[in-house]
Design a protein that fits this description.
The chain is mainly β. The protein contains 3 helices and 24 strands. It has helices at 2-31, 125-128, 170-173, and strands at 37-42, 46-51, 57-61, 65-69, 75-80, 89-91, 98-102, 107-111, 117-122, 131-136, 142-146, 151-156, 161-167, 181-185, 188-192, 198-201, 207-210, 220-222, 225-230, 233-238, 244-249, 256-262, 265-270, 273-277. The strands form 6 sheets. A 4-stranded antiparallel beta sheet has the order 1-24-23-22, with no helix packed on it. Strands 2-3-4-5 form a 4-stranded antiparallel beta sheet, with no helix packed on it. Strand 16 and strand 17 (207-210) form a beta hairpin. The radius of gyration is 23 Å and the shape is globular. The termini are far apart.
Length: 278
């Protein structure tokens, strides 16, 4: 009787060990493998970054410059304004224009694809209020976030006319609204707040929903997916079926500004360097 009881305990213990090892393997598999660093290059003190459809990388820095690199980090061309005001954000999603926003001077600039200036202007405070984030729309109008009254506004830049203005629902972020990023994509507006939450608005600035993600840095878009980083893991969120997948881990997410996925590379933009992974 004693031997039979001991054998039964041994079998149960073996099953428990196997089950624990299975859970450990499952947990490790879901965390994803570490991405491979292909190359990296040093940069000036970067404020924002983005990429175009050809895989070129555009950086803005603390000295007011906009610099273009190819996908391998080879310098192409740069633009430096007359002042030293940092370029807070940049958008190259428009086919023919590059948009830069200067929060410090409450102004913006439009460049062509060769970084030649097309137009530059200050925002009208009577219309815009105090702008802390801006995004250039596909219809050539400007999205802004007015920090003075916590509202999302859409402005016609040709005649400085306010098209729409919607107060952000206070239930979303309470009074703690400090935007990190505002970007238009496929007729939707995406806002990343300081609480790492991503909120979605329609083409009139009306609130739609909050994405079930937490982003540790600025995100980017690629083929209907939102790319972001969470706890050292590069993640992909499908905007149509709301599924998520882990693309791989990175060995250094400290001081990360933005993640960009383009031309089979994943670029991690830090303050003073860009790392390209595969």
């Amino acid at each position: 009787m004693t031997m039979r009881y001991s054998s039964r305990n041994l079998r149960i213990r073996s099953y428990c060990i196997i089950f624990i090892l299975f859970l450990f393997h499952l947990h490790s598999a879901t965390k994803g493998q570490e991405l491979t660093l292909v190359h990296e290059w040093e940069t000036a003190e970067t404020i924002d970054a983005t990429s175009d459809l050809s895989g070129n990388i555009y950086l803005t820095d603390n000295n007011g410059a906009i610099t273009k690199f190819d996908q391998n980090g080879i310098y192409q061309i740069s633009y430096s304004g007359s002042g030293m005001t940092p370029v807070s954000s940049i958008d190259v999603s428009h086919i023919t224009k590059i948009f830069g926003f200067y929060q410090e001077s409450q102004s913006y600039i439009l460049l062509d694809r060769f970084l030649n200036p097309l137009t530059a202007s200050e925002l009208n405070p009577a219309t815009s209020g105090f702008v802390t984030a801006a995004a250039y729309g596909a219809d050539n109008n400007l999205w802004i976030f007015d920090q003075s009254n916590l509202s999302i506004k859409r402005i016609n830049l040709l005649n400085d006319v306010l098209i729409t203005s919607n107060a952000v629902p206070l239930l979303l972020g309470g009074d703690e609204w400090d935007l990190i990023q505002m970007e238009e994509y496929q007729n939707r507006l995406y806002l990343l707040n300081m609480d790492k939450k991503v909120y979605v608005f329609d083409n009139l600035g009306n609130y739609i929903r909050e994405l079930e993600i937490r982003s540790d840095c600025k995100f980017s878009f690629q083929e209907g997916k939102l790319m972001y980083v969470r706890d050292g893991e590069v993640m992909s969120y499908d905007l149509y079926d709301n599924t998520q997948s882990a693309l791989g881990r990175i060995n250094n997410s400290k001081g990360l500004i933005k993640v960009i996925s383009n031309n089979n590379f994943i670029y991690l933009v830090h303050r003073n360097k860009i790392s390209a992974y595969q």
